[in-house]
Design goal:
globular
Amino acid sequence: MDEEIKKALLAKPSSYRRIFEVVLASESGTWVQLSTSARQIGLHEEYLPDLYLQSERWVTEVLEAAPVLA
């Protein structure tokens, strides 16, 4: 696993940590935190629902292309 991703997941300073905080706030429904975290990385809140749907499509494509483990 990429070291920067690992740091973000472990709540350590990382170039991905603030993005991960947006995801966590969105998943937990902490809307004030979501607003704050999105603003910190320069993301406009009105784009978040579309970005979420795009990420779901991307994950689906990746999983469909992944080999099935027996």
